[in-house]
Amino acid sequence: MDEDDLLDLRCGDLVSLARLEPGLLHLFRAKAAGEWVPVAELYRAAGQPAADLKDGLVAAWLPSPDGDPGGAVVLFTDTLWSMTTWYNTGRLRERHPEGAAAG
Question: Which of 11, 26, 69, 100 could form a disulfide with 76 if both were Cys (CB 3.0 to 4.6 A apart)?
Answer without folding.
Answer: 11
